[in-house]
Structures are given as C-alpha cells and as structure tokens.
Amino acid sequence: MKKIILASNNKNKVIEVKDILKDYEIVSLKEAGIDVDVEENGTTFEENALIKARAIAKLTGEITMADDSGLEIDYLNKAPGVYSARFMGHDTSYDIKNRALIEKLEGVEGQDRSCRFVCAIAVVFPDGREVVKRATMEGLLAKEISGENGFGYDPIVYLPEYKMTSASLSPEEKNKISHRGKALRLIKGELEKNA
Fold first, then answer.
1. Catalytic residue among 23, 35, 68, 112
2. Is the Cα torsion angle 35, 56, 2, 28 positive or negative in sign?
3. Nearest-5° Cα angle at 186, 168 to 36
4. Largest separation between any pair of C-alpha atoms in the chain
5. CA-CA-CA-CA torsion sign (91, 60, 53, 154)
6. Burial class of residue 38, CB neighbours in 10 A (0-12, 13-18, 19+)
7. Cα separation of 88 and 86, whole Å?
8. What does each of the 195 residues of the chain score in pLDDT, given as a tens digit?
9. Model's pTM, two decimal places?
10. CA gap 119, 34 in Å, rounded
11. Three-state DSSP state, 11
12. What whole-number distance in Å separates Cα of residue 24 and Cα of residue 36?
C-alpha cells in the first residue's frame, strides 16, 4: 500500500481523505510525528496547497498531499475565500463565523446568495513532480444554520438539488458530491497514472 503524507492536522479533513483514498496509507502530520507550522501566504487555493505540500515533501522525502479549501460567497466578492479558516480569527468558533456570514447577507435573496466550496489538492512526488487539482461544490448561502454532520461552513451551504445543507448529508453522500471528494478522485487518477 502506497504511503502518502497528508499535510494536515485537521482531524475532520484527515477522516474524509482516508475515507475516500482507501487504497492508500494516508498519514497525517501528527501520525508522522511532524510538528511544523507552514505559513500559507498564497493568494489562491492552489498556491496554498502547493506551499504546504512542498514544505512537508522537502522535510520527509515522501509523497506528500496537501489541500487548501474554503468558502466563496459571490455577494461578498468571493470572501472569505482563501481566508476561510482565518476569517474572524483562527480561534473563533464556526458557529460564530457562520452566524456572521448569514448576517452579512441579510435581505439578499435567491441566486444572489450563490456560493461554493472550493478545494485544491496538491501532490508533490519525491522526484519533484507536482500535480494540482481543483474542484467545487455549488450552493446557496443558507438563511439559518442547519445540520449536524460535516464541519466548518457545512451548516450554512444549502444544496438546492438535495433541499438541505451540506451538514445534513450523511458522510457517504457528502464524500460523493463534495469539493474535496471530487478533487480527491481527480488526484486518485493522477496517483494511479504515477504508480
């Protein structure tokens, strides 16, 4: 089984990646005993994913995968975007962040509430090759927090075709249609090509 270092300690993200890439041995930074803080100073999801993947690949010499993902709200000029995790500060709970975003769109109706989850995944190979894939999950910003599953902004992204938020989907359903699920399947294709 091919080992891949996942440049993340976000336990929810690690679970999702392990769930989708079952044929690979996915090792989180914590599991690999790596304690570094990589500064994500890119201006795009792709740049940030590559910054993380390159830094950890350089450190370990292993195949390294990193993801950068977030929420883009069209009405807010695609904010919070690459600053999704840092929006209102790292230590602010998502409950507070989610309520703040709903408030920012008060009075905004219909398609003007369009938003999407974006995920860019980068893989850096020991020989220096790099692959980056991007995928999205389109939705509308919900008017209230709803759903017990998922994490982060999942409770406020309403998926019209499912008539529920991302946080109301089961993990299996979410992995089939999510931005991260789609990006990981694109990456899986590249990993198989490179096997």
1. 68
2. positive
3. 80
4. 52
5. negative
6. middle
7. 6
8. 689 999 998 888 899 899 889 999 999 999 999 999 898 899 999 999 999 999 999 999 999 999 999 999 999 999 999 999 999 998 999 999 999 999 999 999 999 999 999 999 999 999 999 999 999 999 999 999 999 998 899 999 999 999 999 999 998 899 899 999 999 999 998 888 876
9. 0.93
10. 23
11. helix
12. 23
The two three-digit tokens of residue 88, written as one number: 């209102």
103 vs 118: CA distance, rounded Å = 22
What single DSSP character describes residue 124? E
Token pair 């999510």: residue? 178
How would DSSP label each residue in 31-87? TTT---------SSHHHHHHHHHHHHHHHH-S-EEEEEEEEEEGGGTTEEGGGTTTT
Name the DSSP letter for residue 3. Answer: E
Here the tokens at position 53 are: 């993947």
Angle in degrees, CA 129, 137, 85, rounded to 5: 75
CA distance 172 to 52: 27
What's the CATH number for 2-193?
Answer: 3.90.950.10
Can you state the percent helix, strand and coil of the chain, rounding each to 5? 40, 25, 35
Pairwise CA distance, residues 117 & 177, whole Å = 11
Per the annotation, the verdict on 68 as an active-site residue is yes
**Token pair 């008539």 in the structure block, residue:** 163
